[in-house]
């Protein structure tokens, strides 16, 4: 086993260049602005960034509709600025992952324009066409209610084209070897410019068979190995983090039995049951989800997240479970999206309750995998429900009490900065939180610092402890002769739990609290008896603080 797989113990921070910081005052965030904030990110302690799409794009799906894979959106800067940025990140030891959106292009991409214009164009077969409207054209939409169909008639081509997402995002014919070669070329290009890998968008659809006659799409998993092989040949420590909201029984198809496909996957199964647990204080489905997603190759890793730039997709919960999460965190129609999810940011979902926010992030940092934090969450930023669809949780970063939260000097930010009310930049901003030792930001910085010193979570084997209380999740990790143990009380009232632990080697039975001074000794019955306040959490080391003297090399 390679010891220094960096993504196993990374802290990932995801952001959009366009809403982070605007250096040239045109109202749109840019790479220069992001560069100037690298020290902020370094100070927060994150070790990797995931950048949302920043390539040339008409911007009808926040950049997920690309019209040139080899160019930076001019509003964000130039390729030169991009390289300055990756260099600046590297100097601070921060890795950069970028979105790889190759299931579809923008309909304004020259390939598509050429394809529709000329049936003999070489690009015609880069997309999926049908002479007639396929019978199943009104099925398989990813954005139901907003998107009416997966096939749209093109007046120029005089044929129908396939689009899994919005109609302005024609699907690429990813089975076409020429398209596959281009896809590798795109990866090769950005890897050369200093990125450490890709967050691959919509992976199940990228590898799916597509076509008018395809009624039961099939995933062509072998493609995943080709992507990985190419990437690792070019730069050995680069990775792919797959966005694949799939059932646990196919997880290993994505990781590859020999760890020869995707390095990382977002754990959507755990994400949904985590929100169910937060809503109901019933941690059983969460434990089950962890169990079902436990299997992964030694080099594979889960990405653990709370909220991201999309809606909180609850599609994998049962109807009654989903309803409970809606009732707790998004009861109004305007909170919900696509009939299956909640579009709010985390802080407003939890009514800004600091205890619950800490509980949620403490879980994110200690569930099996690598945490992926969303920009602004370190401040407890809110959302703007007057904005359409998912834009509501994509508002500019709130830096200070200066006009527009210090995001821009322009009076017209690309997306309005949240102003006024409990989540406005006047109250929620980085500058003020820096000065307050008890702020969310400083809490986050401290917990990240601690999390980096508990590599057991990223690397170790976990087991769910029997705490005797469904509201209290107990997790233990073992790795290289060290062990860490975490307790989370999801109920709002205090709970007392009792359990015994396995001692490592010749160490004693103490549980050393890493966040405060109340350590625990086993009682005469050999059990630890711990009382946790409502929404409380505990991070312990098993045995003494001499654990590092006892850590083994294997
Ligand atoms: C993924 C992205 C989402 C985007 C879609 C189409 O689901 O997360 O934001 O709209 O792909 O590219
Ligand atoms: Ca700008």
Radius of gyration, Cα only, in angstroms?
Answer: 24 Å
Structural class by secondary-structure content: alpha/beta
Unreliable stretches: none
Report the strand count: 23
- How large a portion of the residues is in β-strands, by DSSP E? 15-25%
The ligands found in this model are: alpha-D-glucopyranose, calcium ion
User: Given the structure, what is the number of helices?
Assistant: 17
- Coarse morphology: globular
Major sheet attributes: 8 strands, parallel, barrel
Mean pLDDT, all residues: 97
Helix content: 25-40%
User: First CA to last CA: what distance?
Assistant: 9 Å
| Strand ordering within the main sheet | 1-2-5-9-10-11-12-16
Give a structural overview.
By secondary structure, this protein is an alpha/beta fold. Helix content is 27%, strand content 18%. It is built from 17 helices and 23 strands. An eight-stranded parallel barrel has the order 1-2-5-9-10-11-12-16, surrounded by five helices. A hairpin with a 2-residue loop joins strand 18 (472-479) and strand 19 (482-489). The chain is globular, with a radius of gyration of 24 Å. The N and C termini lie close together (9 Å). 48% of the residues are buried. The mean pLDDT is 97. The structure holds alpha-D-glucopyranose and calcium ion.
Short description:
The longest helix has 16 residues, at 177-192.
Please tag this protein with its features.
5-stranded antiparallel β-sheet, 8-stranded parallel barrel, binds alpha-D-glucopyranose, 554 residues
How do the helices and strands line up, and which of them pair or pack?
Layout (H helix, E strand, L loop, with lengths): L11 E4 L15 H6 L1 H7 L3 E4 L3 E2 L11 E5 L6 H13 L3 E6 L9 H8 L11 E2 L20 E4 L4 E4 L14 H16 L4 E4 L2 H4 L15 H13 L4 E4 L8 H5 L8 E3 L1 H13 L3 H9 L8 E5 L6 E2 L5 H11 L6 E2 L3 E2 L3 H4 L4 H13 L3 E5 L55 H6 L4 H13 L3 H4 L1 E5 L6 E8 L2 E8 L5 E5 L11 E3 L14 E5 L4 E6 L4 H4 L4
Parallel strand pairs: 1-2, 1-16, 2-5, 5-9, 9-10, 10-11, 11-12, 12-16
Antiparallel strand pairs: 3-4, 6-8, 7-8, 13-15, 14-15, 17-18, 18-19, 19-23, 20-22, 21-23
The structure holds alpha-D-glucopyranose (GLC) and calcium ion.
């Amino acid at each position: 086993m390679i010891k220094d797989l960096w993504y196993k113990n990374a802290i990932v921070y995801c952001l959009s260049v366009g809403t982070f910081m605007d250096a040239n005052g045109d109202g749109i965030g840019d790479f220069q602005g992001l560069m100037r904030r690298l020290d902020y990110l370094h100070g927060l302690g994150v070790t990797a960034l995931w950048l949302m799409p920043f390539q040339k794009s008409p911007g009808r799906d926040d950049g997920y509709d690309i019209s040139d894979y080899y160019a930076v959106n001019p509003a964000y800067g130039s390729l030169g600025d991009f390289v300055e940025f990756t260099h600046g990140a590297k100097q601070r030891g921060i890795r950069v992952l970028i979105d790889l959106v190759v299931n579809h292009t923008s309909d304004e991409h020259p390939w598509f324009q050429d394809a529709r214009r000329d049936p003999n164009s070489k690009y015609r077969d880069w997309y999926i066409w049908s002479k007639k409207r396929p019978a199943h054209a009104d099925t398989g939409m990813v954005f139901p209610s907003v998107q009416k169909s997966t096939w749209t008639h093109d007046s120029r081509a005089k044929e129908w084209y396939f689009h899994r997402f919005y109609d302005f995002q024609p699907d690429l014919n990813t089975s076409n070897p020429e398209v596959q070669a281009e896809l590798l070329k795109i990866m090769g290009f950005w890897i050369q410019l200093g990125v450490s890998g890709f967050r691959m968008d919509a992976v199940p659809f990228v590898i799916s068979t597509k076509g008018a006659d395809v009624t039961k799409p099939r995933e062509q998993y072998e493609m995943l190995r080709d992507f990985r092989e190419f990437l690792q040949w070019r730069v050995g420590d680069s990775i792919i983090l797959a966005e694949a909201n799939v059932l646990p029984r196919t997880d290993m198809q994505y990781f590859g039995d020999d760890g020869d496909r995707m390095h990382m996957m977002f754990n959507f199964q755990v994400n949904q049951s985590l929100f169910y647990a937060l809503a109901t204080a019933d941690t059983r489905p969460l434990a089950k989800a962890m169990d079902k997603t436990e299997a992964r190759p030694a080099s594979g890793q889960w990405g653990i997240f709370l909220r991201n730039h999309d809606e909180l997709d609850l599609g994998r919960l049962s109807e009654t479970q989903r309803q409970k999460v809606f009732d707790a965190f998004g009861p109004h129609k305007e909170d919900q999206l696509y009939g299956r999810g909640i579009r709010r940011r985390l802080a407003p979902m939890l009514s800004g309750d600091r205890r619950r926010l800490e509980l949620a992030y403490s879980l994110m940092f200690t569930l099996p995998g690598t945490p992926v934090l969303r920009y602004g969450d370190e401040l407890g930023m809110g959302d703007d429900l007057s904005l359409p669809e998912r834009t509501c949780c994509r508002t500019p970063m709130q830096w200070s009490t200066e006009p527009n939260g210090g995001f821009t000097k322009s009076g017209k930010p690309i997306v309005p900065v949240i102003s006024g009310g409990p989540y406005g930049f006047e109250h929620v901003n980085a500058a003020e939180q820096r000065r307050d030792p008890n702020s969310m930001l400083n809490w986050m910085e401290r917990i990240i610092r601690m999390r980096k010193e508990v590599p057991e979570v990223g690397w170790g084997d976990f087991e769910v402890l029997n705490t005797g209380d469904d509201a209290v999740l107990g997790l233990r990790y073992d790795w290289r002769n060290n062990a860490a143990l975490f307790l989370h009380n999801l109920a709002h009232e205090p709970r007392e739990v009792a359990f015994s632990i396995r001692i490592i080697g010749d160490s004693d039975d103490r549980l050393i609290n890493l966040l405060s001074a109340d350590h625990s000794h086993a009682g005469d019955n050999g059990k630890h008896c711990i009382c946790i306040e409502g929404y409380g959490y505990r991070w312990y080391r098993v045995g003494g603080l001499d654990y590092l003297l006892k850590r083994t090399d294997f």
